[in-house]
Design brief:
The protein has 318 residues and is mainly α. It has helices at 7-24, 32-47, 53-78, 81-95, 98-113, 117-125, 137-184, 196-220, 224-237, 246-257, 286-316, and strands spanning 259-267, 270-278, 281-282.
Length: 318
């Protein structure tokens, strides 16, 4: 651990951050990540032009991330002990998105249960970049379930992992890097060079958390057969996926749920034929609830594991 806290304190702060996120959700105004997104857009508009876009993208990443990471670390250093603990918890709360995942995805499932395809399409378009204007129930379910499984890692488990490593500043660093990848990490003419740094750094920071998330999905699959299926989907399908970290989480999660994800999707007016994910039945609206429950149970698993490790360490040192 790099933050000078005992295991018990880390576990308690993790629990506090998750509880705050579930109780309060995202701030309606003045959310730090929204402000960071506005900063990123301003930097991209100013620097993503002309020649040497790779180097301009690297500079933009450093200008966006490094000062704010340093500020969060300095805040922790200068605060007295009780306030320091509160600052760690608040930083984690601002970086977590568990309730946001629920609030954005479960209404899609509800709309599909009411056979409200237009409403479901509108709700899905808010969380994914693919075209949903003529999407079917299966396609909308795929989009939502894939978002839940992948962003379970990005918005929750990756954040918790880096909080364990480096406290509040670690969570801040990870979420800012992940946000920049989401904004700049596209393989199109505008971002291919400029967003390369953001994409590669996010891949690096996410490498271990993504595999821990995939393993968690395997462990929480219902029954030995489902666990074996999740493990096999992870190792057989993830290598074909373009993202080194989204592949393991989505393949494992789809296998754990016993549904089919991946396949064709429309981006910028063109059909993209993505590799298959998972195995079993075609996804339906009710599977969004199941994907959410898998993410929620994984959160509980991580919190319980942190508390168990803290208790075991306390016992061994008693």
């Amino acid at each position: 651990m790099l933050i000078g806290l005992g295991l018990a304190a880390i576990a308690a702060l993790m629990l506090a951050g998750v509880v705050l996120d579930l109780l309060l959700g995202e701030l309606r105004r003045w959310h730090p990540l929204v402000g960071f997104g506005n900063l990123a857009m301003a930097l991209e508009k100013r620097l993503n032009l002309g020649q040497r876009r790779f180097w301009r993208g690297m500079l933009a990443w450093m200008l966006a991330v490094l000062p704010l990471t340093a500020l969060s670390a300095l805040t922790i250093l200068v605060l007295p002990a009780p306030a320091r603990l509160a600052a760690h918890a608040m930083m984690l709360y601002f970086c977590l998105g568990l309730r946001s995942l629920r609030d954005h995805n479960l209404p899609i499932a509800s709309a599909l249960a009411r056979h409200d395809l237009p409403g479901a399409r509108l709700l899905t378009a808010r969380i994914v970049s693919r075209d949903t204007t003529s999407a079917s129930e299966i396609e909308l379910t795929k989009a939502s379930a894939e978002s839940l499984l992948e962003n379970g890692n990005d918005a929750v488990f990756g954040t918790l992992f880096w909080f364990i490593v480096a406290g509040g500043p670690g969570a801040v660093l990870f979420r800012m890097a992940n946000t920049l990848d989401a904004m700049w990490g596209y393989r199109n003419p505008r971002y291919l060079q400029f967003g390369c740094t953001a994409a590669r750094i996010d891949d690096t920071l996410n490498y271990i958390p993504a595999r821990l998330t995939a393993l968690s999905y395997v462990l929480l699959a219902s029954g030995l057969r489902a666990k074996r299926r999740a493990w096999q989907c992870w190792h057989a399908q993830a290598p074909a996926w373009s993202s080194p970290n989204a592949g393991p989480t989505m393949a494992s999660g789809a296998g754990a749920l016993g549904i089919q994800l991946g396949g064709a999707a429309i981006y910028d007016g063109e059909v993209e034929h993505r590799p298959p994910l998972g195995a079993g039945d075609p996804a339906t609206g009710a599977d969004i609830y199941r994907a959410w429950r898998l993410v929620a149970r994984t959160t509980v698993l991580w919190l319980v594991s942190a508390c168990a490790v803290a208790l075991l360490a306390e016992y061994l040192h008693a």
